[in-house]
Design a protein that fits this description.
alpha/beta; 3-stranded parallel beta sheet; 34% helix
């Protein structure tokens, strides 16, 4: 009897997933910066590869496995390798887009980045900070920078969005920006 209950629960979960992936009443809010939007019935999609048709990977209604398989089939070797790489990508002074951002995305085909800028409500604007951590910027400037990076990513051949992450918290460092992107406080406050 217990096994039948588990089978029923798994079956219901499976049906719920199928239903959720195929039955939509409305489209989520889709915004674009540099690609056209496609309309299919009452739904909106981004034409990420700019071919004026809805590809499987662009269709948010499709199962994620199908979207991934389709995208991988469209990617070049260089784009796949670029997706495996990760590097620091900081905003310049006042949240400006840097030449490194353009190079990473357009030439090196990268899509994953570590953001290390120190975020402060009232940053003292210095040219690019210490290089590793970048310039101190405001939350608004950080948002403007990340939007600019997404716009460049949207203009690439397949329009794959950029992902920003923080380093894992697996080390102790006096300058915490290397791992957790927050101010570390005064050194004198650290335990001896």
């Amino acid at each position: 009897m217990k096994n039948i209950g588990i089978i029923i629960i798994l079956f219901v979960l499976f049906l719920t997933r199928i239903y959720a992936q195929q039955h939509y009443n409305s489209s989520p809010r889709i915004e674009n910066r540099s690609v056209n939007l496609l309309q299919e019935k009452k739904f909106t999609f981004k034409d990420l590869n700019k071919n004026n048709k809805l590809d499987i990977y662009e269709d948010w209604r499709k199962p994620i496995e199908s979207r991934i398989a389709n995208l991988l089939g469209l990617m070049t070797l260089e784009e796949k390798v670029g997706m495996l790489l990760i590097n620091t990508l900081n905003a310049g002074e006042k949240g400006k887009l840097t030449d490194a951002a353009v190079d990473f995305i357009e030439n090196q085909k990268m899509t994953r980045f570590i953001f290390r800028n120190t975020i402060k409500n009232n940053p003292v604007n210095t040219p690019d900070g210490n290089g590793f951590a970048g310039a101190a910027i405001s939350p608004f400037e950080a948002a403007q920078f990340m939007n600019a990076v997404q716009e460049i990513s949207e203009r690439t051949r397949l329009g794959i969005p950029a992902l920003f992450k923080s380093n894992s918290r697996n080390h102790m460092e006096i300058d915490a920006r290397a791992g957790i992107n927050v101010e570390s406080g005064s050194f004198s406050s650290w335990p001896k």
